[in-house]
Amino acid sequence: MRHLYTTFGPKSQAELGMILPHEHVFVDLRTPDQPGYGEANPLDVVRLMGPRIDAIRAQGITALVECTTGGVGRRADIDYVVSGSTGLPIVVPTGNYREPWIPDWVRDASQDQLRDWMLRELTEEIDGAPFKAGWIKLSAGDDGITPLETRILRAAAQAGKVTGAVIGSHTIRGRVVMDQLDIIEEEGYSPDRFISIHTQEEPDFEMHLAVAERGAWIEYDHCGRADDALVCAMILKVLEAGFGNQLLLSHDLGWFDPAQPGGGTPRPYTALVDRIIPMLRASGVTAEMIIQLTHINPFNAFAR
Ligand SMILES: [Zn+2]
User: What is the pTM of this model?
Assistant: First the structure.
């Protein structure tokens, strides 16, 4: 049976309802070589983010996928403390972000070493916290994937092949996603275990469909950041094209930022339930499809 691997251990689909597939509890966009990178007191993060998480639990959200990966301040120990104090299961990735957010040890590691590190985090314990990584998050440059990013992706495909873990990538251009899917296939893994994160950033809608046609997940993660009507119009076009079973919806919001005094001002994760879903219903989207989009798709994408 497939499970979502969370801070509270593996969860079956029956134990879960709505899942937010792309949010952030903690992010540090300074590069790993900067002083103070990734540093914070977990209790300060709880104080700032606890109310944001209480708000989505009150909406019926049953799990949140943390999208902060290596190189941009992943702190699995902080996710663990926030999860424990709010009661919300959080799914944390292994992997590493794109250049220049790559620490020296990742730059110096071989593909096999990177694969073994990801496998260890997915099957034993994530660095610094007592639970397993749920998935693999990485990224590729806007103009194309670099040799170092390719090495991380090949290692991820190898680790994915063993564990079934999904690979999600921050990739802005659809043609770069296509290159990433080619690499995943070369490694013997499957495009249906890949999430094209930030699909909305690709201006050519036909490219969204081309990515979905190859079997990959597409993700509109600008709920609550872009105009609601625009987000809904994009979702409706995907449903009309018949790819409702491959679409993920989230906000890409939050978070505690250690570069800001007191962690900054986090933005809420509530627009999907408060505004987008009611707009979709009003546009004729069935209750069954809403469940598909908010419960079933995120579980199917991230469970292994
Ligand atoms: Zn994000």
Answer: 0.98
Q: Which of 239, 226, 223 is nearest to 284 (CA)?
A: 239
Report CA(285)–ligand 1 centroid distance (Å). 27
> What are the sequence ranges of the domains in the chain?
4-302
For 101-132, the pLDDT digits (tens) are 999 999 999 999 999 999 999 999 999 899 99
Cα-to-centroid distance, 224 and ligand 1 (Å): 13
How far does the centroid of ligand 1 lie from the alpha carbon of residue 109, in Å? 25
Which one-letter amino acid corresponds to residue 173?
A: R
Topology classification of domain 4-302 = TIM Barrel (3.20.20)
Cα 68 to ligand 1 centroid, rounded to whole Å: 7
- d(CA 254, CA 111) in angstroms, rounded, equals 32
Coarse DSSP helix, strand, coil percentages of the chain, rounded to the nearest 5 percent? 45, 15, 40
Tell me the pLDDT tens digit for each residue of 58-93. Answer: 999 999 999 999 999 999 999 999 999 999 999 999
Distance 250 CA to ligand 1 centre (A): 10
The pLDDT confidence band at residue 35, using thresholds 50, 70 and 90, is very high
